[in-house]
Each structure stands twice: as structure tokens, then as C-alpha cells.
Design brief:
Blueprint (H helix, E strand, L loop, with lengths): L17 H28 L7 H6 L17 H14 L1 H21 L2 H12 L5 E4 L15 E5 L2 E12 L6 E8 L2 E8 L5 E2 L14 E12 L11 H35 L1 E2 L2 E2 L4 H30 L4 H25 L11 H13 L4 H13 L7
Parallel strand pairs: 1-4, 2-4
Antiparallel strand pairs: 2-3, 3-7, 4-5, 6-7, 8-9
Helix pairs in contact: 1-3, 3-4, 3-6, 4-5, 4-6, 6-7, 6-8, 6-9, 7-8, 8-9, 8-10
The protein binds 3-thiaglutaryl-CoA and flavin-adenine dinucleotide (FAD).
């Protein structure tokens, strides 16, 4: 595999702090040295390379942005760059880290009791424990407010019943953050996965995000103590507050996948000859490279400003929606175009582009589909909801 050369056409490097560059470079190197040699087998066989979790923890990237104990407290831009570099490797790798940090540790940190934090945050940060986030249900994806999973009170606490679907990390976790209705209101529960009545059968056969574990969560009379309830989250705003964090990471992450595609097709075009000339000497091939690099550069700049707004504490969920929507759309188009530019080699496992392309179909869908973000933004711009219902 040729050495990765990250595109940076507008000298975004020059806009980063030394610390941000150091964090990014460390993760970039780790992905090249430790992850890339494993990714093709993991993708082909359909598993997440769990043996790398301690190394991810060692780099401080699991919930490393949270202000807790001795965590490294990565700033928003450093955190975003981590996501970008991880997804340059594979969306499944970034998904693992996103879910652990933004969807499990974040709700525990933001909405949990001191006991939740002390029990789970250190273990999740060190990779000793793995978590998942259960919001989507078989019949409620874009409209999580319609969820049917239910908690009822009993003398000792709660009894939880219901099913979740498409849950990243589900079958390999120690703890699940499960969203359920209690007296008609959405609440979050911290559920150790060895609780009787809880199971997480894996959903096999995906054609996308294959180097990531995806599972159902089934809860049949799961008995939970009173202390399982996240005290600080009431209503749909609870899970959506977590999604703001994860969508932020996705906006950065998918640009990493697009950067990987650009690097691959540029090097390929320079090295492969047809009609007696390198592919990269043809105008059509050059136009595609220009289109790709332009979209990447725009997304990189958008992300950087998004990160600076987050740093300043002024970022809105709508800005995050726009960045997630735009970056996923562009990255998928870049990967589809890149696959074409590689000809037949574009379908071979030794090239990265088709794997990124297949992954990005999931990334465009999860955390709010492209069209759902269109509606979120449309409502914000006009003040009129087009969601229906
Ligand atoms: P709506 O009326 O818009 O909102 C209901 C309540 O929620 C509040 N809210 C937010 N709070 C914080 N952040 C946001 N982004 C928020 N958006 C809305 C809102 O203020 C309201 O609060 P309150 O107090 O007035 O009740 O709700 P709606 O029923 O119209 O639904 C629209 C909505 C927002 C749910 C829909 O647009 C949406 O986002 N659907 C997408 C669902 C989704 O993203 N699911 C993701 C599941 S997790 C996942 O995919 C993980 S993959 C991870 C990986 O592998 O990397
Ligand atoms: P639907 O909501 O059924 O939508 C189907 C289509 O209809 C889409 O094109 C959508 O845009 C469109 N649509 C829906 N409503 C409207 C409307 N009002 N107007 C116009 N068009 C509309 N969820 C979790 O909770 N935790 C996870 O860890 C997780 N990981 C995932 C991992 C993978 C690999 C995948 C693929 C999904 C994951 N999800 C997870 C689920 C994901 O968030 C949902 O798939 C997503 O929110 C979309 O829901 P849905 O699949 O039910 O599609």
C-alpha cells in the first residue's frame, strides 16, 4: 500500500494549534501502522478488531474530550481531527470510538449520577468496558419519539421491556444506554448487559460497515434498580443532546474517508497508464480530481469553523446538522466517483475506496438521514415543520 498523503490544499495545518497537530499526527500514524494492516480482513470477515481497543484507550481517544478526572480533555478541533483520522482508516473504527465516547460516556457524564460516573467513566475511558446506545427500534428510526420500549416502576426499581435495532457495538458491550418511555416520557437507563432478560443478537449480513458490530437489543422483563435511571435526561432532548455530539464527530470523520479516497485515486491516476499516458494526464480524470479536492477543502474549512464555534460554546444543533448532512453527502459522492476512477481495481479489496463507499451509505443514514437533516434545517430556516404527524 502506498504511503498516505493527506490533502491540505488550503493550509489548514497553519490554522491548527501545535497540540491539535500533534494529536492528529499521532492518530494518523497509529491508523497507518496498526489499523490499516488489519482492516481488509476485518471488513471481509465482518468483525471489529477488538484487540486494538487498549491501544485506542492508550491514545486517550475514548471520551477523551470529556472534562472528567485525569482524562486528556481534547478540545473540539483536536477531537474532530481524531475522528477524521480514524475514519480515514474505516468508518467502523470511527463508529466504535464515536459510540463509546459521544453516545455512552457523554450521556453518563452529562445526565448521570455521581455513582454512574464513578462506576463507568474510568472503565469506558480505559477500554476495560465497552458501551452501546439504544435509541432506534424496528418500527421507529427517524421518529424516535414514537418508541415503544417501556419501563414500568415496581417495588425495587423498574422493569424494562422492548427491542432496539441497528445498535453499533451492541453484541460486544458491558453496558447499554437504553432510551425508554416511563409514564409516557422518554428517559435513559444505564443497563449492565449481564442483567437477566437482556440479550444482543448480532445482525449479520450487512454490505456496509462490516468492520463494526451491529446488533439488536432485546429486553424481556429486565429488572433494574432505581439507580439505573439517568436523573438528568427527560424527554427526546436527552438522546438528541447526545446525537449533537456524535453528529459533530461524523461531520469530521467522513472527510477523513474522502481524504483517503482522494489520495488513492490521485496516486492511482499517476501510476496507471492507458493509451500510452498516465490516467492523470487526461482532462476528464483531472476534472474529477479537482472536483474531489474542492469538496474536501470546503468540508475541511466548514469543520474547522464548526469546531471553533463549539470551542466558543456558541455552536447550534442546526450548524451540526448542516455539517453532518453536507459532509456525508459529499464524501459518498467522492467515494462513488473514486470507485469509478479506479476501474476494475476499484472493486478489489486491496483498494480502500469501495470499502469507504459502502460504509458511507450507513453513515449517511445513521444519526439522522440526509433527508431528516434537510427537514431539521428547513424547519429552522422557515419556522414551518415538514415532518408530518
Ligand atoms: P422535535 O419536536 O424536533 O424535538 C423534540 C424535543 O427534542 C428537542 N430537540 C433537541 N434537543 C437537543 N438537540 C437537538 N438536536 C434537538 N432536536 C430536538 C426539542 O427541543 C424538543 O424538546 P422539548 O423539551 O420541547 O420536548 O422532535 P420531532 O418529534 O419533530 O422529531 C424530529 C427529530 C429531531 C427526532 C428527528 O429530526 C431526528 O433527528 N431523527 C433522527 C433520529 C436519529 O438521528 N437517530 C440516531 C440514532 S443513534 C445512531 O444512529 C448511532 S450510529 C453511531 C455510529 O455507529 O457511529
Ligand atoms: P426510516 O426512518 O424508516 O427512513 C426511511 C427513509 O424514509 C429514509 O430515506 C428517510 O430519510 C425517509 N424519511 C423518514 N421520515 C421522513 C419524513 N418525515 N419525510 C421525508 N422522508 C422521511 N441507532 C441507534 O440507536 N444506535 C446505534 O448505535 C445505531 N447504529 C447504527 C449502525 C448502522 C450500521 C446503521 C445502518 C444504523 C444504525 N442506527 C443506530 C440506526 C439509525 O440511526 C437509523 O437507521 C436512522 O435513524 C434511520 O432510521 P430508519 O433506518 O428506521 O429509516
Amino acid at each position: 500500500m502506498a504511503k498516505y498523503e493527506a490533502p491540505d490544499f488550503f493550509d489548514i495545518d497553519g490554522l491548527l494549534t501545535e497540540e491539535e497537530r500533534m494529536v492528529r499526527d499521532a492518530v494518523r500514524e497509529w491508523v497507518s501502522d496498526r489499523f490499516m494492516p488489519r482492516v481488509e480482513e476485518a471488513y471481509r470477515e465482518g468483525f471489529f478488531p477488538k484487540e486494538l481497543i487498549p491501544e485506542l484507550a492508550e491514545m486517550g481517544v475514548l471520551g477523551g474530550n470529556l472534562d472528567y478526572a485525569d482524562f486528556p480533555r481534547l478540545g473540539p478541533v483536536a477531537y474532530g481531527l481524531v475522528m477524521q483520522e480514524l475514519e480515514r482508516g474505516d468508518s467502523g473504527l470511527r463508529s466504535f470510538v464515536s459510540v463509546q465516547g459521544a453516545l455512552v460516556m457523554y450521556p453518563i457524564w452529562r445526565y448521570g449520577s455521581d455513582e454512574h460516573k464513578a462506576t463507568w467513566l474510568p472503565k469506558l475511558h480505559s477500554g476495560e468496558a465497552v458501551g452501546c446506545f439504544g435509541l432506534t427500534e424496528p418500527d421507529h428510526g427517524s421518529d424516535p419519539g414514537g418508541m415503544e420500549t417501556k419501563a414500568v416502576r415496581d417495588a425495587d426499581g423498574f422493569i424494562l421491556n422492548g427491542a432496539k435495532m441497528w445498535i453499533t457495538n451492541g453484541g460486544m458491550t458491558d453496558v447499554a444506554v437504553v432510551w425508554a418511555k416511563l409514564d409516557g416520557e422518554i428517559r435513559g437507563f444505564v443497563v449492565p448487559t449481564d442483567t437477566p432478560g437482556f440479550s444482543a443478537p448480532e445482525q449479520r449480513g450487512k454490505h456496509s460497515l462490516r468492520a463494526s458490530v451491529t446488533s439488536e437489543l432485546i429486553m424481556q422483563d429486565v429488572r433494574l434498580p432505581e439507580s439505573a435511571l439517568l436523573p438528568g435526561a427527560k424527554g427526546l432532548g436527552g438522546p438528541l443532546g447526545c446525537l449533537n455530539q456524535a453528529r459533530y464527530g461524523i461531520a469530521w470523520g467522513v472527510v477523513g474517508a474522502a481524504m483517503s479516497v482522494y489520495d488513492e485515486v490521485r496516486q492511482y491516476g499517476l501510476g496507471r497508464t492507458q493509451f500510452g499516458r498516465p490516467l492523470a494526464s487526461f482532462q476528464l480524470y483531472q476534472a474529477k480530481l479537482v472536483e474531489t479536492l474542492s469538496e474536501i477543502t470546503k468540508a475541511q474549512l466548514l469543520n474547522l469553523q464548526l469546531g471553533r464555534l463549539k470551542e466558543a460554546g456558541t455552536v447550534t444543533p442546526f450548524q451540526v446538522s448542516m455539517a453532518k448532512r453536507n459532509a456525508c453527502h459529499d464524501a459518498l459522492e467522492i467515494a462513488r466517483r473514486g470507485r469509478d476512477m479506479l476501474g476494475a481495481n476499484g472493486v478489489a479489496g486491496e483498494y480502500q475506496t469501495m470499502r469507504h463507499m459502502c460504509n458511507l451509505e450507513s453513515v449517511k443514514t445513521y444519526e439522522g438521514t440526509h433527508d431528516i437533516h434537510t427537514l431539521i434545517l428547513g424547519r429552522q430556516i422557515t419556522g414551518i415543520s415538514a415532518f408530518g404527524g
